[in-house]
Amino acid sequence: MTRTNLLKVCACLGLATTLVACGGTTSSNQSSFDSSRNITLYTRDTTSGTRDGFFTGIGLGDAKEDNAPLKDGVVTVDSNGTMMNRVAADVYGLGYISLSTLSENDSIKGLDYDGVEPTEANVLSGDYELTRNFNYIKCASYSDSTKEELVNAFIAYMSTQEGKAVIQSEGGIVEIKTTDPTWASIASQYPAVSKDNSSVTLNFGGSTSVSNTAKALAESFEQLAGGVKFSHNYLGSGDAYTKTQGSNAGEFDLAFASREFNLTSSEPAAEGTYGTLAIDAIVAVCNIANPYEATDAATLVSMYTGEVTTWAEVID
Amino acid sequence: MNNKDITVAKSNRVRKGFDIFWYRLFQIITILCASVIIFVIIFILIRGLTPFFQSYDIDGQSYRVNLGEFLIGTTWFTSPNHYGVGYIIINTIYCVILSLLIAVPMAIFSSLFITRIAPKPISKFLSIVVELLASIPSIIYGLFGMGYITAFSKWVAELFNVQTAGGLSTLSVVLVLAFMIYPTITMLSVTSINAVDKNIINGSLALGASKTQTNFKVVLTSAKNGIFAGIILGVGRAMGEATAISMVSGNANSGPTFSLFDITNTLTTAILRGFNDTVGLDYDIRFSVGVVLILLIVGVNIILNAVKKRIGEKSR
């Protein structure tokens, strides 16, 4: 009696293992691609800067605010990593990610945009156009001269070899040239950095997309500038102008935006107070099993709005 | 002699004081813990109701959310201030009901097997397995869901020649929920079946009923209050589960979804999605979803308790 029951349990366990094994094999069995199938669209949620950059870049700016212009049934994911994993798991998926993370997953591939391959070299040369700039903006004037000098030193630090290396390590696209100054060679221009600045706190804020880069830069700058402290408060690119030169001027000492400033209308930043620290490229991605290779803004728009629904319509 | 009397009286007084001290201490702890729950509810209520009464500044204009539209809306977000959770409420209830349909019979049969049919060693082993299952954190179920259950759903969908978003679907949500609530219901069922009076069972067997007849007609009917308590706990866990579900649901932006192979969305995933990156109205509205979730769980619990009471009365 006991033995037969034990056998039954063993059989059940064996069956369960087989079932799990089956699940495993189906997930890796992605070689077959049927182009008559529908395109599964993946998007980031509305708080994402990548979403903003992508839809603005392809000329579907309405879609950065909500899903109304997009096809029904678009799958929303909440991070760059999830986007990659989902497109990797879905042969018929289409999504978009930041170029810096493209190489991390070999089950997805980046699509050529307007005939240009998404590589860092092509972004730097300006050929690859689905990009957005990470910009900084400082105050027009400072009440505290130490703060002003430290902010200027920080801005200078961002374009030194050391600063650019930090930006690169956080996924920003910059070119480190041999002609770029090293921090040691320019530090003497900013006498404030050699003092003890541990009582000074610089307030940083702005875009959430730039926050990691800005925090990493600040961390490495702290030791170079007499232990200056930083307070980080990133809530969105909208704050960048408002809290440095706009209605709440002075709240931030330096702020970042993951888009261009609206210089002609709502954000008339003073000449020489803003600039670009890095470029972020956005890549449309699909599964590695998908024969689709190259796309352009118009095709992406027609896919995301549902004008085109199957892969056969875009693969020639 | 006299001295001894005094000592006894003294020690009695000390003991009494001791009793009062512990009594007060427990009372204070109980009040503190209870008030935390009340504070949580009040806090969530205030934050959750703010979007309907207070205006938010969005791009220079002030908006508030329409409560009626919020409760019956079929699209999560339309810029600038339209939110809807109506379809999400339906999706949530639908997913929980389907997962109960899978988990409850499985749980009842396995608890019968563990308590009445299996020989001692196997029953002991199985109850340990069930207890282990109940204590596995939900994120683990989420990982399992993402790795295997989505692949399984994709495979099932392919059998029906339906396309899924890489397996993200109502089916995956239902299966993950069923896996999660099965141990809870099984554990409580086992306990309540074990508590059934042996005399009733022996009586049934002595009257000539077969073992199976006894198990279903006598054991289960006597244990049904406990089983129902398990179901109520299971429903609570299923409705409140966020992490695991958000990993397999696909976060549908509109709905409701009734197809097993389409992406879906539940109240908890609506709260979770993009929560870390958002501010202002989009942040506060998550608290409103929280209020809806609390009310839904309370409502379902009241209904289930009423049903439980009616079933209890009927059998008497």
| Count of folded domains of chain B | 2
Q: Supply the helix-strand structural class of chain A.
A: alpha/beta
Low-confidence stretches of chain A: 21-30
> In terms of quaternary structure, what is this?
heterodimer
List the chains of the largest interface with their residue counts: A-B, 40 and 40 residues
The CATH homologous superfamily of the largest domain in chain B corresponds to: MetI-like
Largest sheet entry of chain A: 9 strands, mixed
CATH structural fold name of the largest domain in chain B: MetI-like fold
Note the topology:
The complex is a heterodimer of chains A (316) and B (316).
Chain A: H1 2-28, E1 40-44, H2 49-58, E2 75-77, H3 80-89, E3 93-98, E4 108-110, E5 112-113, H4 120-125, E6 131-138, H5 145-158, H6 161-169, H7 183-186, E7 201-206, H8 208-224, E8 229-234, H9 238-242, E9 254-257, E10 274-287, E11 294-295, H10 297-305
Parallel strand pairs in A: 1-2, 1-3, 5-11, 7-8, 7-9
Antiparallel strand pairs in A: 3-10, 4-10, 6-9, 6-10
Helix pairs in contact in A: 6-8
Chain B: H1 2-53, E1 56-58, E2 61-63, H2 67-72, E3 77-78, E4 82-83, H3 86-117, H4 120-135, H5 138-159, H6 170-194, H7 198-206, H8 211-240, H9 243-248, H10 267-272, H11 280-315
Antiparallel strand pairs in B: 1-2, 3-4
Helix pairs in contact in B: 1-11, 3-4, 3-6, 3-8, 4-6, 5-6, 6-8, 7-8, 8-11
Characterise this structure.
The complex is a heterodimer of chains A (316) and B (316). Helices cover 35% and strands 19% of the residues of chain A. By secondary structure, chain A is an alpha/beta fold. In chain A, the strands form two sheets. In chain A, strands 1, 2, 3, 4, 6, 7, 8, 9 and 10 form a nine-stranded mixed β-sheet that branches. In chain A, strands 5-11 form a two-stranded parallel ribbon. Mean pLDDT of chain A is 84; it is low at 21-30. Chain B has two domains: 2-53; 85-315, Orthogonal Bundle (MetI-like fold). Chain B has helices spanning 2-53, 67-72, 86-117, 120-135, 138-159, 170-194, 198-206, 211-240, 243-248, 267-272, 280-315; strands spanning 56-58, 61-63, 77-78, 82-83. Chain B has a two-stranded antiparallel sheet with strand order 1-2. In chain B, strands 3-4 form a two-stranded antiparallel sheet. In chain B, α4 (120-135) packs across α6 (170-194), α7 (198-206) runs antiparallel to α8 (211-240) and α8 packs antiparallel against α11. The interface between A and B is large, with 40 and 40 residues.
